[in-house]
Design a protein that fits this description.
It holds the Pfam family B12-binding. This is Cobalamin B12-binding domain-containing protein. Helices cover 49% and strands 9% of the residues. It contains ten helices and five strands, in the order αααααβαβαβαβαβα. A five-stranded parallel sheet has the order 2-1-3-4-5, with helices on both faces. Strand 1, helix 6 and strand 2 form a beta-alpha-beta unit. Helix 2 crosses helix 4 and helix 5 packs parallel to helix 6.
């Protein structure tokens, strides 16, 4: 089964890590379908705080979210991606400087780390239905999209182990010690097709073909041929398609349609 995402591309050129991160978050925001539910006053406040110089600002952002009665899951699924989209567009339109957007992107990632403990994650009781491995291949420089995917899965009761740029030997050791029902590989840069394909092949070989593997992210549409030859089971930017298609959640899921 194949579900190739849209072909929207930003000219990320020299922007490197920051451009990749904002592209991932922009795609996430576009697929959330929740922008109409955003409060503009809250969004404007969060955007202003995200680019504010100085230390301790993340605490101010958390306080602003709390005052607006925005839950951790709402922040992760809606407000953080939307702030990223605002920053990305503002940069392209010369409304924000490189320094401001760099600070903003770092703050968003810090918030994702901070909110992980507020969401259901890796429980050992009956709430955990499945286990998933989320991998950002070596050489990929974005992490925000993969972190959001991991957090959304955890919120649904899926136990998640996330690996950033692991060596193939690291994956071998991990999979020898832990059992996973599925793996999700996040790819932002289409130049990393060969690396992503190696990750997929490694996971398939180590699991003797048992583990289902999905690949998603801005770069996946341009990597179709290389990924298909790797044995990938699903190519998609729709997290719900992964959850339902791989049976990661037994009851009716309400996972937002975005990942990557």
């Amino acid at each position: 089964m194949r579900d190739i995402g849209g072909n929207h591309e930003h000219d990320i050129g020299h922007v490197g890590y920051l451009g990749l991160a904002l592209e991932v978050m922009d795609r996430l925001a576009r697929r959330m379908g929740g922008s109409d539910e955003l409060r503009k006053d809250v969004l404007d406040r969060l955007t202003a705080l995200a680019i504010k110089p100085g230390s301790g600002v993340s605490g101010e952002i958390v306080d602003a979210l709390s005052a607006a009665r925005v839950s951790a899951s709402q922040a992760v699924a809606t407000y953080i991606p939307e702030v990223a989209r605002v920053l990305g567009r503002g940069w392209e339109e010369d409304r924000y400087t490189f320094a401001e957007v760099t600070i903003g992107a770092a703050r968003l990632q810090e918030l994702l780390h901070r909110f992980q403990g507020d969401l259901t994650a890796d429980s050992v009781d009956g709430r955990t239905l499945s286990t998933a491995l989320v991998v950002v291949p070596p050489g990929e420089q974005h992490t925000l999209g993969a972190m959001v995917v991991a957090m959304m899965l955890r919120e649904k009761g899926v136990s998640v182990n996330i690996q950033f740029g692991p060596a193939l030997s690291d994956l071998a050791r991990l999979m020898a010690s832990r059992r996973f029902d599925a793996a999700l590989v996040s790819v932002a840069n289409s130049d990393k097709a060969e690396t992503a394909a190696k990750v997929v092949k490694t996971i398939k070989n180590l699991s003797k073909g048992r583990m289902l593997v999905a690949v998603g992210g801005p770069g996946c549409a341009q990597m179709h041929d290389a990924l298909v030859s790797s044995g990938v089971d699903l190519i998609t930017n729709d997290l719900e398609a992964v959850v339902s298609g791989f049976g990661l959640q037994k009851q009716e899921p309400d996972v937002s349609q975005a990942w990557g």
